[in-house]
């Protein structure tokens, strides 16, 4: 008998190799009929598996892969196939992992785990053209009751892809087939709509959404899609409004609608919806918080404080508040303090604002808290102190560096330090020349310091990099209209922006302004009133008031301007308009 001391491999290596081997053997035994006593793991197979694991431990993953893959093919054992895929992934050999997963699927076509593993690998490797056939095979192998859920998860396979149109075109035939079956029709319609959204085809997404709402009026999938489409298509909003007319008590839908309006910059419209929610569900904390945020956005400090007081009352009750969503109670209390500080700052009560911020207890400095402190310092004439606070923010990652940069730019912008903000952005853009957000911000600062050629060049670069960047189209069109240049081109740019976001108030305002420049006063007034009703911003007030003023409707103009001045007495655009027209109060 051979002495243990003369074994060629250290015992620790052998035992390490046996661990996955024993797991594979157990799996092989498990698939045998309970009446059988013997496993298919005979001596030659045991030796092959052992040799494969020893090769792996000896630093020969390629040989181990081949040995174990051959064993997996001969035994059709799922645990062995999983082991081979794992070896390939550990060595970052994606193609070999796919080969092993395909062999697994071919050997065990009934195994949904094999199909899922192959799909995940194809997705991770961006081999999108192979996904439709693999997904179709997964559906065929799955129970009918699971197919709808699988179809709904399909878009996640394309999250790494920058080409949404390719994903839609690849999967559309399969989805159309699934739409012909009752048990998968809803899921297939919803998934095609989502892929259409990702492919920037809102009209196609809207048509599918209409079908869902009409065919499945008791389900929420269609209305959820309509909410996502709301900024891009006005017709989607009609679907939501119709659902609310039929069931006015649906506070969950109304809350989501209000939030969607807020994201579309239609703060005044959003407030109307959220006030109804708080009337219907006065114990819903999420509604009070969302309402307070919108009131702050509209510079309605007193209304925001009233909403925050209602939220505080709910949080202080023994039974607590309803619907905190994913937020924890400490998170909500923290946000309440920050919003109270912002409201106090808007009212000019800096001492109270500082008191609220001092009550926030973070384990480490957070960007939102630091920014509020910095803004408060700057508004009290201590800009350098505010900048110093922001510069103390951590820069441990690229995202943290970017957050700090944008916070500093925002503070400089608020304090009208246009040149300093431009220079800061210029340095950042030199390091990241394809960052569309930085380029857009730099263009806005270029306009402020009268570098208009630079502004146009930067905005056109943004459009080149991101053809659906509607803010860039709008900014360029508005800038041309403001200077009275190339007005037809300006109008085309703004109409293009509206094609991406049809009812966004600032873009509607831009279109109204270019119509005014073109001498179309009736069209201009209609558009500007629409924009002002959705968002009563002082700059929109300046434009609407001027259109009324030139029509000899001075009293109406002054009433609009007075509203704008109450919101922001120092607004540059509004005060410049009043001075130019000789209408200063």
UniProtKB/TrEMBL annotation:
This protein's UniProt keywords: Repeat, Signal, TPR repeat
Domain of life: Bacteria
Signal peptide annotation: 1-29
Entry keyword annotation includes rRNA-binding: no
Entry-linked SUPFAM superfamilies: TPR-like
Keyword Oxidoreductase on entry: no
Name of the protein described by the UniProt record: Tetratricopeptide repeat protein
């Amino acid at each position: 008998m051979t002495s243990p001391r003369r074994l060629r491999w250290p015992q620790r290596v052998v035992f390490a190799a046996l661990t996955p081997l024993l797991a594979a053997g157990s799996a092989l035994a498990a698939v045998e009929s309970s009446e059988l006593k013997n496993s298919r793991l005979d001596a030659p197979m045991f030796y092959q598996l052992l040799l494969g694991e020893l090769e792996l431990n000896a630093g020969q993953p390629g040989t181990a892969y081949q040995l174990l893959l051959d064993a997996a093919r001969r035994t059709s054992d799922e645990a062995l196939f999983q082991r081979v895929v794992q070896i390939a992934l550990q060595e970052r050999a994606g193609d070999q992992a796919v080969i092993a997963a395909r062999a697994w699927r071919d050997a065990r076509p009934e195994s949904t785990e094999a199909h899922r593993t192959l799909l995940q690998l194809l997705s991770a490797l961006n081999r999108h053209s192979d996904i439709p056939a693999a997904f179709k095979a997964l559906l065929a192998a799955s129970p009918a009751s699971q197919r709808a859920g699988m179809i709904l998860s399909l878009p996640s396979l394309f999250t790494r892809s920058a080409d949404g149109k390719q994903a839609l075109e690849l999967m559309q035939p399969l989805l159309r087939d699934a739409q012909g079956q009752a048990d998968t029709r809803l899921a297939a319609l919803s998934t095609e709509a989502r892929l259409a959204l990702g492919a920037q085809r809102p009209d196609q997404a809207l048509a599918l959404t209409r079908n869902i709402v009409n065919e499945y009026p008791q389900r929420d999938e269609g209305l959820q899609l309509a909410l996502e489409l709301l900024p891009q298509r006005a017709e989607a909003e009609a679907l939501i409004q119709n659902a609310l007319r039929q069931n006015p008590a649906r506070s969950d839908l109304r809350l989501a609608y209000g939030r969607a309006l807020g994201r579309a910059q239609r703060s005044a419209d959003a407030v109307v919806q959220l006030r109804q929610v708080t009337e219907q569900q006065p114990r819903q904390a999420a509604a009070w918080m969302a309402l307070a945020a919108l009131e702050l956005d509209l510079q309605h400090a007193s209304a925001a404080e009233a909403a925050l007081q209602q939220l505080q009352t709910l949080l202080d009750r023994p039974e607590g508040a309803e619907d905190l969503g994913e937020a924890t109670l400490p998170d909500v209390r923290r946000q309440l303090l920050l919003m109270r500080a912002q409201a106090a700052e808007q009212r000019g009560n800096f001492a109270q604002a500082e008191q609220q911020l001092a009550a926030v207890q973070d384990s480490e400095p957070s960007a939102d808290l630091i920014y509020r402190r910095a803004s408060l310092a700057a508004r009290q004439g201590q800009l350098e102190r505010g900048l110093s606070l922001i510069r103390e923010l951590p820069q441990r990652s690229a995202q943290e560096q970017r957050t700090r940069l944008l916070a500093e730019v925002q503070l400089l912008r608020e304090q009208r330090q246009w040149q300093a903000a431009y220079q800061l952005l210029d340095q950042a853009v030199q390091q990241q020349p394809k960052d569309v957000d930085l380029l857009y911000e730099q263009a806005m600062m270029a306009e402020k310091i009268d570098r208009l050629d630079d502004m146009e060049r930067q905005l056109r670069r943004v459009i080149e990099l991101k053809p659906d960047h509607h803010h860039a189209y709008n900014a360029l069109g508005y800038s041309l209209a403001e200077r009275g240049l190339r007005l037809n081109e300006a109008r085309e740019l703004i109409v293009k922006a509206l094609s991406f976001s049809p009812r966004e108030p600032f873009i509607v305002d831009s279109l109204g302004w270019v119509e005014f420049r073109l001498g179309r006063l009736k069209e201009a007034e209609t558009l500007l009133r629409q924009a002002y009703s959705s968002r009563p911003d002082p700059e929109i007030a300046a434009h609407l008031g001027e259109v009324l003023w030139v029509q000899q409707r001075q009293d109406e103009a002054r009433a609009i301007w007075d509203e704008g001045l109450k919101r922001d007495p120092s607004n540059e655009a509004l005060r410049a308009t009043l001075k130019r027209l000789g209408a200063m109060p």
